[in-house]
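Exercise 7. Predict the joint structure of the components listed below.
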Amino acid sequence: MKYRFDKKTKRLISGRRRFLQGAGVVAAATALPHLWIPRQARATAGFNTAKHLIYIRLAGGFRFPTAFNGDVGAEFNPFGLASGIASGTEWGVGGILGENEWHTEELQGLGLKTVPSIANEICVLPCVDHEPLAGSADGNHNTGLERFLTGYVGGSTGIFTMINYGLRERVAAAAADGQILLPAILMGNASMGRGAGVYAAFRPPVMSGDDLDRFGFNTDSVLPDWAQSMTRSYDERYRDRQNPSHYNTVDAYLQSREATKAYSEIFASEELKVQNGSQEPFDGISNAELEDIFGDSGTARNIRLALRLFHYGCPAVYLDQGGYDFHSDEEMGLPARIQDFNRLLSGLHFALKKMQHPEGGTYWDHTLIVAGSEFSRTARGSGFNSARGSDHGGDNSTRWMSMPLMGGPIPTGGRRIGETAKTDLAATGPVFSYRATMLTLMDMLGCDHSEFFPVDDPFEDLFV
Amino acid sequence: MKSTDSNLRTHALIAAAALGLTLFGCRAVEGIDPSNPARGPGALVGNGAPVSDGNFAGGDDQVPAARDTTPPSGEGYVPCDVACQSYCDSLGLDNPINRGVCPSMWGAGLASTPIDRPEACRRLFVDMVGRFPSPSEVNTTCNRASWGETVKELLATDEFLLVNQRRWADKLLYNNRTVNLERAYDMDDLVGKAYSGQVAWDLFASVTAAHPILTRRHDTDGDRADATFKLFMGRPPYASERSDLGRLFAHWTNGYFDHPHIGRVPDAFIRYPCVAENGAPDPESEGQCTSIKWGHNQIIMSPDLRAEDQGEQEGTMWSGYLTAEEWQELQLPGRLLTEQTAFWEFAVDEAMEQYFGYDLGTVVPEVRHEMVEYLLQYNGDIRSVHFAIATSIPYLQSTQALNPESYPWTYGPLKQIQVEPWLDSIQRTTGLQMGDCDHRISNPEDYLENDEDAEFEFGGWAFAMVKNSRWVIDDDRQLVTGYRNLARTLGGCPANEVGGRFTTISILNTALQEGMMVDLCDPGVAGTDDQIPTEALLPEGMAGNTALSDEVAEQIVARQTRLFLSREPNQEELDEARLAAAACTPAPCDAESFARPVCFAVLSSAEMLFY
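Solution:
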């Protein structure tokens, strides 16, 4: 659901036109019970335009106005605006995005650009909110993160579980053709992969660039036949002698072992050994080049692995980046810490455009890159709090997650969709619910999201 | 069920003396013990006699026969008529769970499922000690004169405390970047006191609700009330409860304390709302510090010389300066909740969920009622609840029953083992040394490496603190991180920065576990890095090059079944061992080339993941 600020009432109102559309469909369905409502009823013009999603959480609560909604008062963005901004950029490029100590001569030589110079390829939604109709922001670490990961406080299904579930028919169809497609994968907080009941089977695996060498073999390859048989027997006997109520609990593990074998061939691929320093191009870029581009930090290894997993059908990866809970020392700490993120964005912009997608075009053409956080931050009317940091409470500054999106499937690069007042950060344009934003991303991936967030809709604004 | 007055007075004096010293010493805090840096309100309670004698009743009930009547269908409420109730009354059951469940079980004609000692011992050890038992423990600790004696013995172990300290670390989300680690140490000690019978459960709740580990973790009064409600009532508060109880958290605020050895740390501070400029209660604003939902309750504190008079936290006071009386006053919100029946009900429900994996107190409410009475009978000693559960017949049933009834209390509970117990069991049985992890310091490297951008430099004290914790530092003074890295990938040893522990079956968790077993067992006899020594996989005295025979194969399977699964092999497994020996190639195999694949089959089996 999209919300707009009503100047007369000074309140947010829901997108009535959209609501009435929905009401019309329901009314028609009520009047004509046989009427079939296609799944695409909630789809946008961007439906199925992206094959991959990189979803980055700026962990700990990120102070968005310092980066992605920078042309606001100094109490919201004490770092000012960046310089060298690409023409055609509508949104305020915060000064910290121009921090470029990472931008060494070597990386410049490779062709990596600073973030301000690619800002016209990034679209920003200045006002994304967990609960647009709530009286105040949710600035609580626990509940804010719960909302970020699942859409709700106490949500039982993670966004990435929803993605896997939403793509289940595509995966099944590929399997029927003998093709194994990797699922969406987590490289960060595992709660993004919550799931129970019918969704439990679609929970995404949790992995990281450090762990991959453990996955790249089929254990059957090191076991003699009799031992393979013995291994299966131990499991099956244990499962079969349980009370029927416990059968499924144990059987889930047996199924997991079988699935692991199915994926082992993929995991054994040389290309996934992202730390092997290989100079051999794969999808148009070598592992060594990826290391040069992204570096060798934990996040860098994860993103290098993510780009390789995409080759094997993985639709989405989620990763935690940074650690932005700067209650103190933000003034000095944030410009230093943001450097890794700047390099990440720039590296993705460069690498994805160079990489050739197996289905044609470049990876950039098929990949969405989106960043968010559990909430934004506030210094409660000052540039910084007394510890030269910022906090999180219930105000607008905490409230708005000004989320950047980039990649080929985003036709609105450089645009700012929404706006805030410079003085008090009040929304003066559309406000998007976080759940609607997630539905929009799912929509672009071609997911069936009909079962999720029923009172929210994906929005068209990104495609207009 | 409260700390005695004399205890409090003693600690008030100590605190006052400490306060005097700290004020006199320009608020420097020197001389803190790096082996136990605990500081906080936990130290003020539970320093006297245990709240009960620890001789809990109900550890020796005999398994009753089911009453001779047609059992219920297997779904829905189980009625218990006069004859049923009379039958239960005649059984003379002492265990509160047995008494509570009887009308839904034996009295209703449902039989319980027998269990053998190894299966019971294995379950008990994982739940109470946090690892699988060794073969000798199955035959000693789990073979006392009564099961009650076994449980009592385990209740007295440090491992029992650690299991529960880890649970509370998960619940309270210990994280040294969010809250001063001294508070985590203090809270950890408090949990230890509760689970060793030194602190009654209501006092534990009261202190916890106003403990900096909780108050500093949250940002607003309402959030603190919310967290307290969830912790001790098992549900979020209604809006009116949240706002009302939140007023009793109005004095808490978040700030930073300059620790002499580890630099600036986030900690809880006290602010002074509801008072006029002269420090007297302000009639205009005192309602902001007053709760009226559970009677008229008010906390109003006045600032004095201890409050910061300048700087970043001007007007507030570091909570470390609070006296024992002030701590007790601030513990009012927790005390109010402990006066609710629901508080005690949740205490027993939560413990039952911990052991059964389902909410027995809700599906059979009579059990909850009996358990609450039992807990109160022992003055709120939470050990009594654990004793009653671990000696109850519903807990001591096999999971392997094929009874057609679907009532979960008629067969044993099956749970997935958590990461640390799994890793610890493997380390103990294989000799693997991966290090350890300490829930009190989620990010120990913070104190081992100086940040070039920071003004503070860590010294020997910080190193000593980490060295004295459960974290392992090697001879090169480097943190050993193998255990932590693996555990965190699998869902354990949580950093609690924002998320927490998870237990899951997933493709890559499975792959990770299998990969580890390949490293350990080396089924291909390829000489892997972490290979278990051959002699550990073979019966005592058997050489690795012993020619494989049916008898040798059986002995190897028996040895590993005892070692890893804490039980004897069954006939099917022995038959399979002989068949495998016959199939082993290139023939003739020797003992090692047979034992290593067997090791993989056993250690990677579902039986190692569920109990």
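Discussion. Residues 16-39 of chain A have pLDDT under 50 and may be disordered.
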